[in-house]
Design goal:
heterodimer; A: about 220 residues; alpha/beta; six-stranded parallel sheet; B: about 140 residues; 5 helices
């Protein structure tokens, strides 16, 4: 595969380095800062191009038309959007991947046809939420446009849901529990499965029903 | 008309003053407060300090009721993104973006989401007219 990475910061650099280990990939990093460009060239070899990767002439020079994938990992969302849109519309690149710094931009990127977006802030937020005991639901992945999220909840020690079959808990129809992690092992639950202390529940739910699911799993009673 | 202009450089300020003069309701967004000086002390529109690709800033500027959004910051990428947000997220009827780079302008013009203006091509046309006589594009 020929992969073009625009943005030679830490993300772009380590991504290129990792891809280059698999000798089947051809990789090019486009970086507009001269010093960074020189540093990357000295570390990884002649896999770099000095220039503004959102500029059409630089994209031509990079041979973007024959790229299998373009990865835009600059620190600016507007640059990443331009890179991916130009790659797709002008150069016909099949796969465009963009880093998103402001989580609110995920929606607009998806609507404009960017194939894959990585919201760094959301990923780190999920990690922070994991370590806050009071937080009942941890967001693993949020698909805002589809109105759905993958969440994780830990069953607290004296929760009233312990020992009761899943189907009796009143979990809304919009929520599905495909997996429970119990003592480090994955368990695929069904209606009769009874929750135990320490179970980590992985659920898929509509964003609208997240609160209700969170309340059920933490054992709060809900007004019907 | 309610008009929002993103970018208070020479073009943005010129447009703002002109449109206010013509009786329209104008709000100018810029991320640098010094830029607003270009509007003059007697500017009758409003200003919002912030980045025009941030939806919260756009809402503060009143984009939900805007008739027109003009993206004329000095960055093509910012203009393209802001214009698309204005069109797709807020359904502003008239959206125009200035794009200095001719190839970018052509691509976005083809996309058809917003009107695009390329000063580079326009100036090139005018200059050729002057030195070569009438030329078609």
């Amino acid at each position: 595969m020929y992969i073009i990475i625009v943005g030679g910061g830490k993300v772009g650099y380590y991504l290129a380095k990792t891809l280059l280990r698999n000798q089947q990939h051809e990789v090019l990093i486009i970086e507009k800062d001269k010093r960074k460009f020189e540093l990357i060239t000295s570390e990884l070899g002649a896999v770099t191009l000095w220039g503004d990767g959102s500029d059409a002439l630089v994209m031509e020079e990079a041979g973007m038309a024959r790229a299998d994938a373009v990865v835009a990992v600059t620190g600016d969302d507007e640059d990443n959007l331009m890179i991916c849109q130009m790659a797709k519309k002008k150069f016909g690149v099949k796969r465009t991947i963009a880093r998103i710094n402001n989580p609110k931009n995920e929606n607009i990127f998806k609507r404009l046809g960017i194939d894959s977006t990585i919201s760094v802030t959301d990923l780190i937020l999920a990690q922070i939420e994991r370590h806050i005991p009071a937080q009942s639901l941890v967001h693993l992945l949020t698909l805002r446009e589809a109105g759905v999220s993958f969440v994780e909840a830990k069953v607290p020690p004296d929760s009233p849901v312990i020992g009761k079959p899943l189907r009796s808990l009143g979990i809304p129809d919009d929520c599905v529990i495909p997996l429970i992690i119990r003592n480090g092992k994955g368990v695929v639950p069904y209606g009769e499965t009874r929750l135990q202390n320490g179970d980590e529940i992985i659920a898929v739910t509509t964003i609208a029903k997240e609160d209700i699911l969170g309340k059920i799993l933490s054992g709060e009673t809900i007004e019907k | 008309m309610k008009v929002i202009i993103m970018g208070c450089g020479r073009l943005g300020a010129h447009l703002a003053r002109r449109l206010v003069q013509a009786g329209h309701d104008v709000t100018v967004i810029d991320r640098n407060s010094d830029s607003f000086a270009r509007l003059g002390n007697d500017f009758k529109g409003t200003v919002v300090l912030g980045v025009g690709i941030d939806e919260d800033v756009l809402r503060r500027a009143g984009i939900e009721t805007a008739d027109a959004f003009i993206a004329v910051s000095n960055g093509d990428n910012t203009n393209a993104m802001a214009a698309q947000i204005a069109k797709l997220v807020f359904q502003v009827p008239h959206v125009v973006a200035r794009l200095y780079d001719p190839v970018r302008e052509e691509t976005y013009h083809t996309l058809g989401l917003m009107e695009t203006i390329c000063p580079t091509v326009m100036a090139s046309d005018e200059i050729c007219k002057i030195i070569l006589g009438d030329v078609s594009r």
